[in-house]
Amino acid sequence: MPREIHVRNPRTGTPDHTIVAAGDDEIIAAAGALRARQSAWAAQPVERRAEALRAFGDAVTRHRDELVARLETDTGRRWVSQLEVDSVLTSIERTCRYAEAAFAPEDPAPTADPDVHVTGDLVPYPVVAVISPWNFPFQLALIDAVPALLAGSAVLLKPSEVTPRFIPVLRACVAEVEELAGVLTVVEGDGATGATMVAVADAVCFTGSVRTGRAVGRAAAEHFIPAFLELGGKDPAIVTASADLDAASSAILWGSTINSGHSCMSIERVYVDRAVVEEFTEALVAKAEQVELAYPDIGDGQIGPIISDAQVDVIREQLEEAVAKGAVIRTGGTIQYLGGGAYLRPTVLTGVDHSMRVMREETFGPIIPIMPFDGEDEAVTLANDTEFGLSAAVFAATAEQAAPVAHRLEAGAVSVNDVCLTGMFPEAEKNSFKSSGLGASRMGPPSVRRFLRRRALLMRGSAGIRPWYYDGTPTQTEER
Ligand code: NAD
User: Fold this and answer.
1) Pairing outcome for strands 154-158 and 184-186
2) Looking at residue 77, what DSSP letter applies?
């Protein structure tokens, strides 16, 4: 019996799209077909795979308008949808270069024995399952798929069931590149679909919440496959007394509210030196009040609807709990229903502390809680008082003044005198710390290298095999 999933439109609040979740048999068959075709794909020189991925980029360019239109409906965002598609195009070219470098020929390396040299080859995981979330549906569907394919793996991809309208267009792009069509299969489905995928893959790349990431990690351990997990965050920003408060408040407003706060690397906690906290807060509130909703026209304003219905509840509950415990709403604070979509203006909170969910759990909405600190040690302690470790930001008069604080933060990427730079500079290798993730970097050259296992060839030369035992025993050479 096919299992239908109804998809809600974030601007109207009504379900206007349906997908059919791939059944277990379909997934098992898809993985089998991918595995059968993968060895020929991997046997080609990397340049041929890069050619296929560049041809895929051309197909995406041809379908750009259609993709953007679907993503607009998926997310209620216009220019971010354009940005998503364009960023995938630039990432293909960059990742092709990483892949070509990964497979560059190498000279045999000497060992302690002059007669033995080491070389090797790189063996991709045959089938990589890629499971992605709803906040950047297109970009995050391909962020792991493209490097895995370039490494020589075949990919079984499942985007989020919350934002799946772009999937048919993505499939059309794949179908236009014959070499790729056999090694990249895109399925529709939800958590149950994803769980089956983990059971049939040789490695899994998962982007999503910590809660699901832990389940995927456990399932991967059960099947004894590696799991590359990119999970949630609760990113702190520290504003020291020497910082340019105008620049810091602008950057933090943007970093907290862009994409309606639906970014893993959103700034979700702000710690400001007590000497400047009121001045900073006033500047931030004044700017926040100038931000407009993308309503009634999607091209209006800057803040789109809250995409996922479930997230509306999370955001509301965190706000209500914070206010009940004494937080003060300085601006925003009310979820508005407009045309059926749920919107929240940038919301600045003061009077917060770490007993509140809004300071401990991921919000994934445009809320900016501000807390004062006394001294650098307290700022660092507060910023590190979290289960997450995705990224962070530090502001000071100069980057050199901010760097010592940045070095003390338990996070995989720290923007200095700016925010969210890790999202804009994917060449920077980074790991996710603590509960925010597991596994090698998806940024920089390791993005490709992590899908390759190294097979070492230890080559004995002409001197022949030495005796291994004490004098008097026959040598291995003599035995033969
Ligand atoms: P989610 O964990 O609910 O779902 C993510 C994906 O996992 C979906 O495709 C879903 O169908 C699938 N899934 C659900 N249960 C599964 C299971 N048991 N086995 C396999 N797959 C399963 O996350 P979401 O709400 O879609 O996305 C938001 C989260 O993603 C936030 O926490 C955000 O911080 C995080 N995120 C992280 C990054 C990063 O790079 N670290 C980037 C973007 C988003």
Assistant:
1) parallel
2) -
Whether 164 is in the pocket of ligand 1, judged by its Cβ within 6 Å, is: no
* 194 alpha carbon – ligand 1 mean position (Å): 10
CA 231 / ligand 1 centre spacing (Å): 7
Q: What is the pLDDT of residue 468?
A: 63
The C-alpha atoms of residue 317 and residue 333 are separated, in whole angstroms, by: 12
**pTM as predicted:** 0.96
Instruction: Say what the pLDDT of residue 465 is.
Output: 76
Q: Which of 143, 153, 171 is nearest to 441 (CA)?
A: 143
Write the pLDDT tens digit of every residue in 371-408. Answer: 999 999 999 999 999 999 999 999 999 999 999 999 99
Task: Find how far residue 475's CA is from the centre of its chain.
Answer: 55
Active-site option among 230, 268, 361, 362: 230
- Domains of the chain (ranges; CATH) run 3-231+434-457 (3.40.605.10), 235-428 (3.40.309.10)
Nearest to 309 by CA among 101, 76, 44, 41: 76
How many A from CA of 369 to the centre of ligand 1?
Answer: 24
Residue 4 is among the residues annotated as catalytic for this protein = no
CA 145 to chain centre: 12
The SS3 of residue 421 is helix
Give the pLDDT score at 476. Answer: 47
Using 70 as the pLDDT threshold, list the residues of the chain that sit under it: 466-480
